[in-house]
Amino acid sequence: MSAVEALRGARVRRIDAPWDDLLAITVTGEHVRGVLVAGLDPRARGIGLCETRPRGKPATGFVQALRRRLEGARLRSLHDEGSIVQLELERGGATWRLELWLEGAEGNVVLYDTGGAVTHSLRRARSRPEPGAARHGLDAPAEELRARGERLIRDREGATLMIARTALGRATRARAKHLRRRRLAIEGDLARADQVEDLRSRAGLLLSHLHALDPDARSATLLDPSRDPPVEIELQFEAGLGPRTQADAWFRRARRLERGATVARERLALTDRELAAVESLLGRVAAAPNEDALAALAPELERAGVALPRPGETRRERSAPERMPYREYTGSGERAILVGRGPADNDQLTLRHARPHDLWLHARGHAGAHVVVPLTRGEACPPDLLCDAATLAAHFSKAKGQQYVDVIYTPRRYVRKPRKAAPGLVTLQREKVFRLELEEARLKRLLSRERAVR
User: Fold this and answer.
1) Is the overall model pTM greater than 0.85, yes or no?
2) Each residue of 274-298: pLDDT tens digit?
3) Structural domain for 16, as ranges
4) In what order do the strands lie in the sheet with 11-19?
5) Number of neighbours of residue 213 by Cβ within 10 angstroms
6) Would residue 156 count as lying in a domain?
7) 247 and 339 housed in the same domain
8) Angle at alpha carbon of residue 350, lines to 445 and 450, rounded to 5°
9) Which residues face 34 on adjacent strands?
10) C-alpha span between 101 and 83 (Å, rounded)
11) What are the C-alpha distances in Å from 79 to residues 83, 85, 87, 119, 391?
């Protein structure tokens, strides 16, 4: 018995679209029981039967419309017209024609009423393909159609796995690229630490000759006995600084760079560990044998900072995500702390993202990042969270590396942007000042807990 003869008179029990490009119609009849599947994707296109209903996405509006009209209907005829497979169905005296368009770049499913008018379409209806000679073999035995259906499902699952693996691989590689860029930036910070010995040498030389220098001098040429042979070097002082204050400034800068190098080495080690974990995950994504194995990797990928693609997200949407104007860190109590990325981003964070009752912070007297602590209305910021936010405000400012920094804080509603002011410049209607003593352990903990944001 051919598939057409076996299906004639069968009743439609259920309609599903487990994937966007596959329609599954569960049928039962005297000579057949199974699922009629139609693949619309060019990589898995055709029609066949399978034993069990494929599982996947919940019913869309289109599928629900088909269910309301066709579930319970009897299949009167099945026609293979080459580019189109046509099903004639009858329910409650009404006749429906369901067409499966199986040609072109995109297939389609179109429902016609008794009068021949289109009532529903899976995709925006384009011109109807021209019918042709039968090519889907519906006159073959039902057993052959079942073999084709199982092969169709396997091919579609393989295509789905490839798509999912490609999307996860792309996201994982993007995270690895971000970590490599971070590593280069940290190496730049460490390279600046090479100035420490030179700064201390110049400061010490200057102090040893203070007795012979004019207190108001703006430069000095001194013999450096630490070199072999000793040579004269010219020291230029910063604007407004005399010999003693310049020596103190060089010593402070050396200490700041040294402390920064300690933090940078810790961050470099952490970044190397994160990068090794992400590269290992990239290999596991490429080797995942099925979608269940990929899904099992999702929690590890998220913990590694990989921005997982959202269901239904297109490649264009993934390649051009909305860029957030802030970095996000996890502070005390697992609370978020938002840090502006730059002057224009500071304005975006403060004026567009922060709410009036959120807490706003900034290093006093120094250019730097705006910092926002999201709070619930009427909530006071916990002391430890305030200290964490102040630490980040000091670190992401020109006061970076100083032992003591004054940090101002106020509810966001008291922050105003003057008209035509430069990016990042704001005024405050009221403020409080927090005298921060830098704790390196706190800073390292905060920097290691940066969350991935778009």
Assistant:
1) no
2) 999 999 999 999 998 887 888 899 8
3) 3-140
4) 44-50, 33-41, 22-28, 11-19, 74-80, 84-91, 94-101, 108-112, 118-121
5) 16
6) no
7) no
8) 20
9) 27
10) 6
11) 11, 6, 7, 20, 73
